[in-house]
Design brief:
The protein has 103 residues and is mostly helical. It has one domain: DnaJ domain (Helix Hairpins, Orthogonal Bundle). It contains five helices and no strands. Helix 2 runs antiparallel to helix 3. The relative contact order is 0.12.
Length: 103
């Protein structure tokens, strides 16, 4: 399984942050790295700028952010060993998918 990227940590914001705060932090970090890259271009800094751009691409879009937050929630629950109980529909499908055997 691929390692899940924590885009909130990349931008240095909280998952509860408002979209405006995320945008401000993105511009701050990108501007800072952009100037450093012009002085001393390295692959490490280029990779970091790419990560920041990727994080903002996801967190800057409300639809992508909500999908990311759901995935992040699932990853955190999986790592903690917590599993959600199946929904009624999932239970119903599980029951119907098993062959019926009268006793």
């Amino acid at each position: 399984m691929a390692k899940f990227k924590d885009y909130y940590a990349v931008l240095g914001v909280s998952p509860r942050s408002h979209a405006r705060v995320i945008e401000e932090k993105y511009w701050e970090r990108a501007h800072e790295l952009h100037h450093v890259l012009h002085i001393e271009p390295t692959k490490k800094l280029q990779k970091k700028l790419t990560q920041i751009n990727e994080a903002y691409e996801v967190l800057g879009s409300p639809h992508k952010r909500s999908a990311y937050d759901r995935k992040l929630s699932d990853v955190i629950e999986h790592q903690a060993g917590m599993h959600r109980p199946p929904t009624f529909l999932q239970s119903f499908v599980t029951v119907l998918s098993k062959p019926f055997r009268p006793d």
